[in-house]
Amino acid sequence: MSSIRPLGRMLVSKAKNKTVEIDATKVSLGSFYTTQSTWLTPEIRKFLAKALKASNGLLLDPFAGDGHLLTAVSQDAELTKLVSETNGFDVQGSKWAINDSLLKIPNPSKAVIVTNPPYLANHSARRKGVSSLVAKYFENSTQTNLYKIALDNALAVSDYVVAIIPETFLLSSFPKDRLELAVVIQDELFCDTDAPALVACFGKDLLEEALVYTGQKLIGKLPEILDLRKSSSQTKTKILFNEPTGRIGLRAVDGSDGISPIEFMPAASFDYPAESVVVSSRLMTYLEVPGIEDNKIQELISEANLDLNSIRGASSDLVLAPFKGNDKSGKRRRRLDYRLARSILNRAADSVLSKRP
Prior knowledge:
Layout: E1 9-13, E2 18-21, H1 24-29, H2 42-54, E3 58-61, H3 68-74, E4 85-90, E5 97-98, E6 112-115, H4 122-127, H5 131-139, H6 146-157, E7 161-166, E8 179-185, E9 197-202, E10 211-214, E11 217-221, H7 222-227, E12 240-241, E13 248-251, E14 263-266, E15 284-288, H8 297-315, E16 321-326, E17 332-335, H9 338-354
Parallel strand pairs: 3-4, 3-6, 4-5, 6-7, 8-10
Antiparallel strand pairs: 1-2, 7-9, 8-9, 10-11, 12-15, 13-14, 13-15, 16-17
């Protein structure tokens, strides 16, 4: 019979039943503090100006913490004259009115909400041994992360919401019909984590075609970016992932050194022990495409890498999930999920097979 893990003991190895001690209160709050104002780009300023004008200059942060976001907006040279009043809530402390905004956000005046909500996935709460502290939030929601619960609550009571949230939001299933603008922040924004973040700006209208920026560079409309993930393959070639004897190696994550990008390669060139591949492998693996002859494998690999790099360029990498901050060159690391990898390989196989005599 397995024993119940004590509160504040995070599981780091299931096989060895190894745990480490963590600050259960801090982890359960899911708080990462924003002390920089680099998130306040020209496009976000434009959105906030419109929102404040439509909301009588009222500004609210339901997860206010030290109040850095309220200060950044209210003291910004272009926005200060538009702010008439700022208010905040927090679950602890004496600076703000006490309120648990993961349960409900009081906002009768329809103030613009600017916030950095807590980040904590339900599965992470279990692994970190803090499920009992956050269970009440997940019990009353279909969402799987605290920041999504916070977004649901904010969007229910405000016409305009600006939220600093994980960049993985772009690829999530969270409804984006009110999303007007998303700005990926390339710099490390938080003082206590390198979690990749973006600023999501929601309006009151249903648009379903948000503009996406990386810093101040316009990448395109979100639906067009997400379309790059869709498979156009007609044949759906059989592909076996996590196959230790496979003829193709896949490094599915950018290396931290800045010179080892995501790449398909011949198994003989892949410096990763085949015996380390297991059914749950997601970062380094071998795969097999049974329908491709040995003398066509290199062509398949070349086609797949061309497609991968084309997609990365067209989307400025946004079709790939961020992975553990930036590399040594300052570029955000990315991870290729197997769903997209399969689409890429299917298209490559179509190309190779179409050339058969």
